[in-house]
Amino acid sequence: MQEEKEFQIEIEKHEPVVESIETLKEAGKKAPKIEGVPTGIEGLDELFFVTKIVKGKVKTIPLGGIPRYSVINLTGVSDTGKSLMAEQFAITQAYLGNPTIFVTVETPGTFLAASLRERAQAMGVDYNEIDKNIIIIDAASYRKLRENILNMTDTLAYAIKQYKVKNVVIDSVTGLYEHKEMLARQIVRRLFNFMKKWYQTAIFVSQKRSGHEELSAEAAGGYAVSHIVDGSIVVAKQTILSRAQQNLYGVPIGEIIRLFRIDGCRMCGHDTNTRIMEITPQGLVKIGPSLSELLKRRT
């Protein structure tokens, strides 16, 4: 009822917002340069690219990472490597000297620290070289961070200023609107706008329900996340159930293969193929060949 009254007031009190208007030339002067932010995930960084006109011809140039200042939605069902990818990104950026916030919504901070230590060792990174460049915000242990988005953004702003942060990982953003999915769009929009205001490169991990199509960008809360953010990466797993699948993937019937796809990115060009994804015994994610490439090899 209160929301309806506020909406009615907004309708009655309307006027042009002149300061919101500017020419492309004016906006272009303030536009950030599109650069790559390395993820530390083998096979991923070259899948984003920019186009340039060279001697009258359009050429694509690999970006070398996800676009700087982009907000990427990383979504999939459980056990598809989402958190591993988020950890690899945070460790890589910390190693490069870029302070990175890791908002942990599912796992208490001390357990995340243990996981990051293991992941760093698997990546060949000295834990002592990164431990001051990863700032953990423990939303798993502090309910008021999960339940109140203003508490969350105020805490993020404080940490960004205090540690001169360049990147933010939230694992998972779905946990911030658990049991209140009607507010999903509002919460994700607020976080997206916050990242833009503070010039952060961000990864929002989001959970898919088992009922969702495996390789769609839809997450719990509907399409709220994928429609608002700059781009989506979808990961999935599939059980080999037929001879045809066995021949294609080279994996016995009954085994599981994992798949990867960039579902979209409005900030730059990107590979559109569905690709094989591997999780090594050490817990590192690697992106492999596309299914079309795999098919050519098998025939």
Structure description:
- With 299 residues, this protein is an alpha/beta fold.
- The protein has a single domain (34-298), classed as Rossmann fold (3-Layer(aba) Sandwich), CATH 3.40.50.300.
- 33% of the residues lie in helices and 26% in strands.
- The chain has 10 helices and 14 strands.
- The protein has helices at residues 2-12, 24-30, 82-95, 109-122, 143-147, 149-163, 184-197, 224-228, 243-249, 291-298, and strands spanning 36-37, 48-54, 57-62, 66-67, 71-76, 100-104, 134-138, 167-171, 201-207, 231-239, 256-265, 269-270, 275-279, 285-290.
- The protein has a 9-stranded mixed sheet, sandwiched between helices. Strands 3-2-12 form a 3-stranded antiparallel sheet, with no helix packed on it.
- α4 links the parallel β6 (100-104) and β7.
- α3 crosses α4 (109-122).
- The longest helix is centred in the middle third of the chain and has 15 residues, at 149-163.
- It is globular and about 65 Å long.
- The relative contact order is 0.15.
- The model has no long low-confidence stretch (mean pLDDT 89).
